[in-house]
Design a protein that fits this description.
Layout lengths: L3 E5 L4 H12 L3 E6 L2 H11 L6 E5 L5 H15 L4 E4 L12 H32 L2 E6 L12 H20 L5 E8 L20 H13 L4 E4 L1 H12 L2 H8 L12
Parallel strand pairs: 1-2, 1-4, 2-3, 4-5, 5-6, 6-7
């Protein structure tokens, strides 16, 4: 029986690169995004066999929308072997500005509630089967907060903690929970950043390393590994030194920066 993967945020960036890597490995793809036409265009451009992929339109920030997409996948294709909750947004914020609180709500709705809602339809079927992998995409930015990026950093810290909690809940069930924390990946989310991005990685390279980590059953992996060491070093810095290191650092663009 063909192996099956369910990926959110599959219309661009990391999600698209992961879809291609798993397709090359022989998987059938269940691809989810708001912009379904972009997935179809990419699939046609890549020459994907139309019997090996299915596209579902959903907004992960709308719980019912993504749950229905997951249920449709179960009904039409069966229980996936891997589910990757990849969809996410990254917008700068300033707590002094009222509209940016709405940005924070939307960020958590997408990056956190959307992640849990993505996993929700598949937890019980995977447990009943006794196998599967639920993969949450965190970020190195979730390891320590960055000025002007409070919503995103907090949301990704929450992804890391949530996945750790879920891993404990599913221990012994045969279902693996994998947390992947990308560093800087060359995607639409990072191309407008106004600060240096050390160890910038291309999406296909990230996808190859993510594929290996998931296949090996890793519980937690920073990609690339160099960013893991950077993050650990920053975590160990006393607050006074950390604040000095980041003093004057350009901030992430806010939504109305134009």
């Amino acid at each position: 029986m063909a192996t099956l993967i369910f990926i959110t945020g599959a219309s661009s960036g990391i999600g698209q690169a992961l879809a291609w890597r798993y397709y090359q490995a022989g998987y059938t793809l269940a691809l989810v995004a708001r912009r379904t036409e972009e997935i179809h265009h990419w699939a046609n451009t890549q020459g994907l066999d139309d019997t090996r992929y299915r596209v579902y339109g959903a907004d992960v920030s709308d719980i019912d929308s993504i749950v229905v997409a997951g249920q449709a996948c179960l009904a039409e294709l069966g229980t996936p072997d891997v589910v990757i909750a990849n969809a996410g947004i990254s917008v700068g914020m300033d707590t002094a500005i009222r509209s940016d609180l709405d940005v924070m709500v939307r960020t958590f709705s997408t990056n956190n509630v959307g992640l849990a809602a993505t996993f929700h339809p598949f937890v019980q079927p995977m447990v009943l089967r006794g196998s599967g992998a639920l993969v949450g995409i965190g970020s190195v930015a979730g390891i320590r907060g960055l000025p002007g990026h409070g919503a995103y950093c907090a949301s990704k810290a929450a992804v890391i903690s949530y996945c750790e909690s879920l891993r404990g809940e599913l221990r012994g069930s045969g279902v693996n929970v994998v947390t992947l924390c990308p560093g800087y990946i060359d995607t639409p989310l990072t191309r407008q950043n106004r600060y240096s991005m050390p160890f910038l990685m291309q999406p296909p390279e990230f996808a190859a390393q993510a594929f290996d980590a998931i296949a090996r059953g890793a519980s937690y992996r920073v990609i690339p590994w160099q960013m893991g060491w950077v993050a650990k070093a920053l975590r160990l810095l006393p607050n006074s030194l950390y604040d000095k290191v980041l003093a004057g650092r350009p901030r992430k663009h806010r939504e109305d920066h134009a």
